[in-house]
Please model this.
Amino acid sequence: GAGVSQTPSNKVTEKGKYVELRCDPISGHTALYWYRQSLGQGPEFLIYFQGTGAADDSGLPNDRFFAVRPEGSVSTLKIQRTERGDSAVYLCASSSLAGVGNEQFFGPGTRLTVL
Amino acid sequence: AQKITQTQPGMFVQEKEAVTLDCTYDTSDQSYGLFWYKQPSSGEMIFLIYQGSYDEQNATEGRYSLNFQKARKSANLVISASQLGDSAMYFCAMREGPRNQFYFGTGTSLTVIP
Model:
């Protein structure tokens, strides 16, 4: 399909393990965002890419979280030494331009459960 | 301070009636964008409507309209002729430049009653 895709859809891991979450944005979209959504809450901004570079990573909660977008398309969110508090739905969104008026298109999310 | 405030955790509306979902925002930027998204139980985030800070007219998209009151910093969503399929979480969001961060509210759960 032409939408934003995220894999895996569900990920169960044990405390202390490393996980990678993948986002494949809409083709041609230069802006890519990662969010975390805890149960009953709105999405919380994590990081924003414009092209290959992280334009704003101020939302990453700590240095266990890292994201890359090496070719300006697919992005991977990496979480080291996972903790139970990392359990949430991780949403990815992309938009064609970074201007304030450009809507974001969201992927279906990855539900991460840390046991 | 919260960037986006949604004070209604849950709302009920009768089918075919109109409903207003409240949203207030906080920014010192002159240029910003306001968005509403719908999130059904399936979890996907669906874009509904957008209002730019410089837009003089209230945005409308089909049964959705945005009641934009800039001086009061409010951007309420009005859904007319509610349908059962409108039952979902609704999130108000704001985008500010130049960092283009996107801030979401805590959401309002809307239930449409047959």
In short: Chain B has a mean pLDDT of 93. The radius of gyration of chain B is 14 Å. The interface with chain A takes residues 4, 31-33, 35, 37, 42-47, 50, 52-53, 91, 93, 95-97, 99-107 of chain B (CB under 8 Å).
